[in-house]
């Protein structure tokens, strides 16, 4: 009898733990985000995808949910995409979305970390700066990270122009042509007027303008990149000076020289792969999940 009771007790305990974990892993989905929240939340990770990448796409490429939940970290995968920079009204609207995300889900507002891949990384930097400047939103990020992000839009314009002229491949030239057309329509030519780029870019190296990062002096900042020169040359026809890695390195050095003490440049080798197994250093996989969560909880 005692043996059967003990077995029943163990079974109930296992079922209880399983049910608890299942409840924790049940996502809350809105038009703006997909949120996974542990029963006890010690920190919040908010992720922006690359251009056109939605919440499901981010989670597929960077499945950090289970590991994060096991460490009491909530994860929000955002649907905010198709942006390379933010107008002032867009900053306010996005800040409101993030404020609602934190408040409506009773998440801690003192341990929020924001990060993104590619254009999502650039947006992460700019919106983190905006939230830190504008205290009316009730929280400021404790940390922000950008994964192989184009942080200097003026430099990106010129790289796109060079890529179109080079015409290395239809895909590379087509992407650059789209970008060049977009910039000309929205911000103009930086060689004629650099001011719009200074207004919207996270950083403009040639004029040492970093007004969209000034509020982050005491914020933890990480830049991730995998500078595989051979891959970029063979697949995209670009040199190191045209890679996001080069501009992230310059920004890291610039901020450090300005007295930013919490800036880290993390370079990887051989870690960049897409979820389908294809080799691509411009990928979420270059961010070590365990190390990222340790950085957040440290």
**Tally of distinct domains:** 1
Unreliable residue stretches: 1-24
> How far apart are the first and last residues' alpha carbons, in Å?
49 Å
Shape by Cα distribution = globular
**CATH C-level label:** Alpha Beta
Biggest sheet, open or closed, and with what strands and sense? Answer: 8 strands, mixed
Task: Count the beta strands.
Answer: 8
Q: Give the proportion of residues in helices.
A: 40-55%
| N-to-C series of helices and strands | HEEEHHEHEHEHHHEHHEH
Strand residue percentage: 5-15%
Q: How many distinct helices?
A: 11
Rounded mean pLDDT is 92
| CATH-assigned fold name | Rossmann fold
Category by helix and strand content:
alpha/beta
How does CATH name the architecture? 3-Layer(aba) Sandwich
Describe what you observe in this structure:
- With 298 residues, the protein is an alpha/beta fold.
- The chain has one domain (29-152, 201-297): Alpha/Beta hydrolase fold, catalytic domain (Rossmann fold, 3-Layer(aba) Sandwich), CATH 3.40.50.1820.
- Helices cover 46% and strands 13% of the residues.
- The protein is built from eleven helices and eight strands.
- β1 and β2 form a beta hairpin.
- α4 crosses α5.
- It is globular.
- The N and C termini lie far apart (49 Å).
Indicate the topology:
Elements: H1 2-25, E1 28-29, E2 33-36, E3 43-48, H2 55-61, H3 65-70, E4 73-78, H4 88-104, E5 112-117, H5 119-133, E6 143-147, H6 153-166, H7 170-186, H8 195-200, E7 220-225, H9 229-236, H10 244-257, E8 263-267, H11 289-297
Parallel strand pairs: 3-4, 3-5, 5-6, 6-7, 7-8
Antiparallel strand pairs: 1-2, 2-4
Helix pairs in contact: 4-5, 6-7
Keywords: Signal
Signal peptide: 1-22
Protein name: Alpha/beta hydrolase
